[in-house]
Design goal:
By secondary structure, the chain is mainly alpha-helical. It has 4 helices and no strands.
Length: about 90
Amino acid sequence: MGIEGRDSFVRREECKAAWESEVEFAEMARVLKALAVELGQDTDAALGELAAHGLGAALGVLAGQGEVSGVEADYLRRRAMSRVDASRLQ
């Protein structure tokens, strides 16, 4: 009985970690898309880079498309604002 209980706990924790990872990726994609729109750039290219190579590559695409500086700071600002807005809803 002890081993079965441990196994179910491990499975539950794995599911929770997977869900949290999905939520974080969705948040990154939402913020990245909003930033691309704000900068007047192609959202598909940035989101494609996010899916294929991660956040750093996606921010690099946004910085390279419009010769924009401070893209990472803008992203972090928008993500913080998104989290504040989400916490107000809870």
